[in-house]
Design goal:
The chain is an alpha/beta fold. The protein contains 13 helices and six strands.
């Protein structure tokens, strides 16, 4: 006789759903990397062929042009243009003498990304390694990768977060890993607007942009929900963003603040974590972790605010880096759009 298994509560179902999503996303990512890797191996071998035959723009232009025509005729959907063939040679020349670790990091990047990094970074192996690894780990799209390069993000790596109580509230292994995952500051130069503005609607838009950035960070995070509702004793509590981190085996609550850090934020986060552990945490999962992400923080004030709390809580700054000229233009455009929307609403009412 078939045994019928019932789901006892929403938390148990959410745990099953999280695990299923993790399995699917991991499989999809492995498949995509395998396809890209195979394609780049082809690019590498053709580039090596052109290099070994000493074909260059002066002495091999006609040969490469003819080769491109013949290959396009035989393989019309494989991008065998003359320009692409020269890019393949450039790819081989750039990395043929590089360390294996760098070649492995670059080999799994999409072809467009490889060529863009070669054009923008040149021979800087350290920078190339950083952007190649971050693109894969955080699943950056093209725009995010290019913006990161334009900002020289590899020179702005933040130190490990010390504004937390992880050492007191987590095991040694968990605390060490959590400090690697969560940093003291997050560089958010990708954002369109970078300064708090008085209008509440504009503040909402800023927060929305920050949330979108966090969604694209990757690094083991599975997104669960935005304004995630926790109901307890007839009262609703909403977490700004809720993630699950596969490596930490922990739920991660992120509370976004448009202002500087205030001590009362810690008490609020402590409530969220208590509810998550009570209502959502699986039996095989570690304690939920909270991150308060704010515009500014005073480390001494943070240390005092965290004193006495037994839930793992960290406080981090987001750094918004946009050139002043672009900043003024973006804020001006945002305000104009906002005012136009208000005017249209007023016209509709009239």
């Amino acid at each position: 006789m078939e045994t019928i298994i019932t789901i006892q509560n929403e938390s148990e179902y959410n745990e099953i759903l999280r695990h299923a999503v993790t399995v699917i996303e991991t499989a999809r990512r492995k498949t995509a990397l395998a396809i890209v890797g195979s394609s780049n191996e082809m690019h590498w071998e053709i580039g090596k062929l052109l290099y070994d035959k000493k074909l260059d723009s002066k002495h091999g232009d006609k040969v490469v042009k003819r080769l491109a025509a013949d290959l396009k005729a035989a393989y019309p959907k494989m991008g065998m243009s003359e320009r692409n063939l020269w890019d393949m040679k450039r790819f081989y020349v750039r990395f043929k003498d590089s360390e294996p670790k760098l070649r492995q990091a670059v080999a799994v990047l999409p072809w467009w990304n490889i060529n863009k990094l070669i054009s923008k970074i040149g021979d800087d192996d350290e920078a190339m390694q950083y952007y190649a690894e971050q693109t894969v780990e955080k699943q950056w799209n093209r725009d995010l990768m290019v913006n990161a390069v334009n900002m020289n993000m590899h020179t702005q790596l933040s130190a490990t977060n010390t504004s937390n109580n992880f050492a007191l509230t987590l095991s040694d292994v968990q605390a060490s890993y959590a400090n690697e995952v969560f940093k003291d500051s997050y560089c958010m130069g990708f954002l369109d607007v970078t300064e708090p503005v008085l209008e509440l609607e504009l503040e909402r838009r800023l927060v929305a942009k920050i949330k979108q950035f966090l969604l694209e960070l990757g690094q083991g995070f599975t997104y669960i929900g935005n304004q995630y509702n926790l109901n307890y004793n007839g009262k609703d509590y909403k977490v700004d963003m809720l993630f699950f981190h596969r490596g930490l085996r922990s739920l991660v609550a992120i509370d976004l603040k448009i202002s500087e850090f205030k001590p009362e934020y810690v008490g609020k986060m402590n409530i969220y974590l208590s509810l998550l552990d009570k209502l959502e945490k699986g039996n095989d999962e570690n304690p939920s972790i909270g991150i308060i992400l704010c515009a500014e923080k005073d480390n001494v004030e943070v240390e005092l605010a965290l004193d006495g709390f037994t839930k793992p809580i960290g406080v981090a700054e987001y750094k918004l880096i946009v050139p002043q000229k672009e900043l003024k233009q973006l804020i001006s455009e945002e305000i104009n759009t906002f005012n136009q929307e208000i005017a249209l609403k007023s016209d509709d009412v009239d």
